[in-house]
Structures are given as structure tokens and as C-alpha cells.
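Hi Y.,

Following your request, here is the sequence exactly as I used it, all 283 residues.
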Amino acid sequence: MSLEQAEQIVMNLWGEDARAWRRYWAPIFRRFAKDLIFDSRLSQGQLVLDVGTGTGVAAFEAAHKIKSGFVFGIDRSKSMLAAGRAEPNARLRNVRFFFMDAQKLLFPNQIFDVVMSNCGISPAGFRQTVSEVYRTLRTGGTFAYSDWRLKDVQVHRIFGETLQQYRTKNPSKKLSLERVALATLESFGNREMNFDGQVRELKLVGFKGAEVKTRNYRIALDGIQRYLDMRLKRVTLKQELRELRAKERRELLHALRHELAEFVRDGRFLFDWKVTFVRAKKM
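Below is the corresponding structure, written out as C-alpha cells. Let me know if you'd prefer a different format.
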């Protein structure tokens, strides 16, 4: 499978996950967004672009921060954008969302003071995206983004390893393609677009003084079931469950509870989530 094909499949899945994202994932990513806003060093009156905004988590945070500025959020998923527009924060006068590909930004040269992305840049499109970001940033402007790797979050890694042991060995064509697409993008991200590779790409397009820092977040959920819901309500995971017999589903869920029991403390489900933040300037 080509990188382009994998990205398209994963992009379609992203769009289908809007409801689960908004309910389970957005509250966690809001914490990442607050630190991203801090790193972006926003000032009143600035024009800001949020790339891969999803439901607008970071865009809303930025709009609250710079009430005399203006924030544009873009995403390639219409359903994610629709979920964002349904948020109470969507009433803010200084934020707007647009359906747009970050690899082909429909904005003029040197228009933004800050471009940011809260874990919203695809590894497959990283090179072209940072080139477009550089083009649309004003001289002296800031590009700040966050990213994370599945292998760096222990609980997600254990979940994935357990799932792989119990998932069906005879997937449908649809599920097989989704598995390959997800694995292709993850492999490319780990191999070619790791953080050293990303910094190289930033330098190649002209960014200067890239700063890289890692923050570790302690995530606390209301029990193990909340974590299982968070993972299993995603579209591909629901398909994985559907393609198992009832007995096999029970075995998978039992195995997951057993393997993840170490993260339960006094009824709470606690785990660490490492996120990397990068900040660079257009000089």
C-alpha cells in the first residue's frame, strides 16, 4: 500500500470518529492544547492558523487567549468541523473553521503571525505541510506544534499488543485495508518522520532555531471501562469487535482488563502520556 493510499484511508476513519473523539479524546487533548498555546506565545491582535484543528480544541483555546486577535481552524474532515461548530465555544466571534487541506493552504503568502497544530499533522503530509506553513507565515512568525508516538505511551502500547493477539486472523477486506493503512502510517512516522526527521524538514524549508521539548501528562480516568470505551468506540476498533465471535470478544475484553489492571489505582485508571512540542521561527 502506498503512503498516499494509507493516508486517505486513515483520513476517512478520522472523519468517522468525530463523535468518539469529541467525547473521549478531546478533553485530554485540551490539556496538550493549553501548553501549545503557551509555547506559541500568542499576543493580542495576532492572526493565527490552527492546522488539523479537528473539533477546534486548540483553536478555541487560542481564541480565548487573544480576544482582539483572530483564529482560523482548518481540517480535512467535514464531520470533525461540524462537531466543532456545534461546541458552545463556536459562538466566539474571533474563530472560524474551514474545510481545507494543510498541504494546499488557500491563504496568501505571509499572512499569519502564528501557525500551530495540536497533534494534527499527518506524518505522510509533513513535508508539504511545513512548506505551506512557512509560505503563509509572516517574517518573524512562529510555528508551534505537538506530536506523539503510540510506542511512547505504555498503556496504548499494551492495548495494541493485546489486541493483536486476540483479533481475527481472517479480517474482511475493509478491516484488512484499515489495519495496513494504520500500520503503514505508524511505521513511516517512526522511521522517516520521527522528531529528528521533522526538525530536518523544518530546516530545509527555512525555519530557524527549532526548539524541541517533551512533556509528560498524568491522565486520570474514571475506571478501566472509561479507557476501554475511549479505545473501542473508535471506528476501526468497533470493526475489530464486530468481526470476532461472541466468545472471542469476551476473551479479548477479559485479556485487556487483565493486562491493563496495573494502571488501576483506587478505582481510577491512571497512566502517563508523553507528548513532544516543537517551536520554530521564520526569520
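The chain has eleven helices and eight strands.

Thanks again,
Q.
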